[in-house]
């Protein structure tokens, strides 16, 4: 009926990655459970919410082969609370799981393993090894501007594209997201293990992006990205996430990006970030609008709220053109300033009504488009 001896830390790491996939709120009870099955080298753990499948291999000593189905959150909470380095997991004839470590013992309600939905793994997958830091940078710079509008499903994820690089062994990676009010785009070249030089692309939906971020928190050097029909896979450290792709074509995002902007100013990124945060204190929590006032030699952020008061914060800038006032949702500006890492940020404008572009000289492959708001 399944009995194993497992390293607590290793098992806990696998359980942690599965927590986002285990659907705690689902009306389908089995989706809140994990399927556990013995292997030659220990344990295979599977969880799914139908959009994402997590499969993890956990090394351990198999005392009795078998399968089980246990509530994922309860098992995680129990293993997390234990102090011993080694734990024993055994399944009783009534499908309950018993977890023991030292003098601690827990019994967790389970269900028949046969109730767990069938999970199929794509047979034809093209795997590409991408440096973890590179993939993490792409995701961090695009995840925040994914759309929540379910009427436009093709915007409910990050568009990920892999193309040939400038020389053999390199791939050009592009990641894009937009919610219609802002757009994030990152493009860069990187080493790619096993890349065949052919183009691959997918729209990774928001839930898949969230789970990928869990995988990227590990310290592995390379994450394997797999492209399959209708699915995209991410694999590292014995854990694989299989994510259902969003069907449909991604919009022609290049049309949104201004070809050129006549006004370009450079600001201290941290100084601008601090100024916006201060002004946001008195901003309406219904509109989130602040005004950006550009005058010769200075850039000011202002707000006026009849319920709270008004505020103003100025920065010195190298600008000698005509003055203009532009309204912005301040959260959009903060999101960008929080993900770029250069000391300076570049703001580009055409006028009070056109799209504005933010970028950093330290990260030439990343740019962010923010639409203004009426004031």
Q: What do these coordinates show?
A:
The structure is a single chain. The chain is α+β, with helices and mostly antiparallel strands. It is 17% helix and 43% strand. The chain is built from six helices and 25 strands. The strands form three sheets. Strands 1, 2, 3, 4, 5, 6, 7, 8, 9, 10, 15, 16 and 17 form a 13-stranded antiparallel sheet that branches. An eight-stranded antiparallel sheet has the order 14-11-12-13-25-24-23-18. Strands 21-20-19-22 form a four-stranded antiparallel sheet. α1 runs antiparallel to α2 and α5 runs antiparallel to α6. The longest helix has 12 residues. The N and C termini lie far apart (67 Å). The model has no long low-confidence stretch (mean pLDDT 94).
Structure in a nutshell:
By secondary structure, the protein is α+β, with helices and mostly antiparallel strands. The chain has 6 helices and 25 strands.
Helicity level: 10-25%
Strand content: 35-45%
Number of helices: 6
How much is the radius of gyration in Å? 25 Å
Which regions have little confidence, pLDDT < 50, spanning 5+ residues?
none
Mean of all residue-level pLDDT scores: 94
The largest sheet is: 13 strands, antiparallel
**Distance, first to last CA:** 67 Å
Summarize the topology.
Blueprint: E1 3-7, H1 8-18, E2 33-39, E3 42-48, E4 52-64, E5 67-71, H2 72-81, E6 86-91, E7 97-101, E8 104-108, E9 110-111, E10 126-131, H3 132-140, E11 157-164, E12 170-178, E13 182-191, E14 200-205, H4 206-216, E15 222-228, E16 231-236, E17 239-244, E18 263-268, H5 269-280, E19 289-295, E20 298-305, E21 309-316, E22 324-329, H6 330-339, E23 344-349, E24 356-359, E25 366-370
Antiparallel strand pairs: 1-4, 1-6, 2-3, 2-5, 3-4, 4-17, 5-9, 6-7, 7-8, 10-15, 11-12, 11-14, 12-13, 13-25, 15-16, 16-17, 18-23, 19-20, 19-22, 20-21, 23-24, 24-25
Helix pairs in contact: 1-2, 5-6
């Amino acid at each position: 009926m399944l009995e194993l001896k497992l390293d607590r830390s290793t098992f806990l790491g696998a359980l942690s990655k599965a927590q986002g996939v285990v659907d705690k709120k689902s009306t389908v009870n089995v989706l809140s459970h994990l399927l556990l099955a013995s292997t030659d080298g220990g344990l295979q753990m599977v969880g799914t919410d139908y959009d994402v499948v997590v499969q993890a291999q956990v090394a351990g000593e198999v005392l009795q082969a078998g399968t089980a189905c246990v509530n994922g959150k309860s098992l995680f909470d129990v293993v997390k609370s234990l102090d011993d380095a080694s734990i024993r997991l055994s399944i009783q004839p009534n499908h309950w799981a018993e977890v023991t470590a030292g003098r601690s013992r827990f019994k967790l309600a389970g269900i028949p393993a046969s109730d767990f939905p069938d999970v199929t793994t794509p047979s034809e997958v093209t795997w590409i090894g991408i440096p973890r830091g590179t993939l993490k940078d792409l995701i961090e710079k695009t995840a925040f501007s994914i759309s929540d509008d379910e009427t436009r499903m093709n915007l409910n994820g990050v568009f990920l594209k892999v193309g040939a690089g400038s020389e053999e062994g390199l791939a050009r990676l592009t990641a894009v997201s937009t919610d219609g009010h802002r757009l994030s785009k990152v493009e860069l070249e990187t080493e790619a293990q096993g890349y065949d030089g052919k183009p691959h692309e997918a729209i990774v939906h928001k839930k898949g992006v969230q789970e990928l971020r869990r995988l990227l928190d590990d310290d592995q050097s390379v994450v394997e990205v797999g492209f399959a029909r209708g699915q995209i896979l991410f694999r590292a450290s014995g854990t694989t996430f299989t994510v259902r792709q969003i069907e449909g074509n991604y919009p022609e995002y290049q049309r949104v990006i201004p070809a050129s902007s006549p006004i370009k100013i450079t600001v201290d990124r941290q100084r601008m970030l601090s100024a916006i945060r201060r002004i946001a204190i008195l901003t309406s929590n219904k509109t989130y609008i602040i005004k950006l006032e550009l005058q010769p030699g200075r850039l000011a952020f202002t707000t006026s709220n009849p319920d709270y008061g008004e505020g103003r914060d100025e920065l010195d800038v190298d600008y000698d053109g005509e003055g203009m006032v532009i309204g912005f949702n301040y959260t959009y500006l903060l999101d960008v300033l929080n993900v770029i890492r250069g000391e300076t940020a570049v703001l580009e404008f055409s006028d009070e009504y056109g799209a504005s572009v933010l970028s950093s000289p330290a990260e030439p492959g990343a740019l962010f488009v923010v639409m203004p708001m009426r004031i």
